[in-house]
Amino acid sequence: MASISEPSKAKTPAIRILLVDDHPMVRERLAEIINREKDLAVCAEAADRQGAIEAVQTTQPDLAIIDLALKNSSGLELIKDLHARWPKLLMLVVSMHDELLYAERVLRAGARGYITKQEATRNILLAIRRVLNGNVYLNEKTATTVIARLTSKPQAGDGSIADLLTDRELQVFELTGNGLSTKEIAGQLGIDVKTVETYRVRIKDKLNLQGSSELLQLAIRWMQNR
What is the pTM of this model? Predict the structure, then answer.
């Protein structure tokens, strides 16, 4: 369930910000930084997909700050869902996930920026204001990489694992590499076991893997080398 709080009173209505993260301490720290600003206010908090949707419906935020790893759900899928329902809602990702790997995916899903949690304490306000001003926020290195990917012509046979897999397939692949069972992956992503098994089959086909053992070994190496 979402935790909702009213923005502080001011002559000019504060910009309303929703925090979506399954770690209360992260939400608390972000709220502390944001609420110091006279024109910004955290209007609600949520730990999962359902709480986030309820909060948007109830508080109508101007901006949602979303983690990719949520309680029993996927932040990336939430971004797609929110963008489809409320296309004018601005979204900024704050996450521990590899920025070079996920930045382009979250932009395609509907978010307007990506900032790592390590960077957030220092630059979160910069990222927020850039997104609110209608721009995209990425750090310089990531922006250069994303632009290069978008403007270059792909060469046959040079696709990496990330390029070959869809958003959901990559999530299943990474969770496999983290040692989660099919049932555990299903619980974390909020899907059923059969769906996870279907994704595993697709991953093996795309990566030319012969069985579950090869899939597991490759997924573990992938996570170790990131």
Answer: 0.71
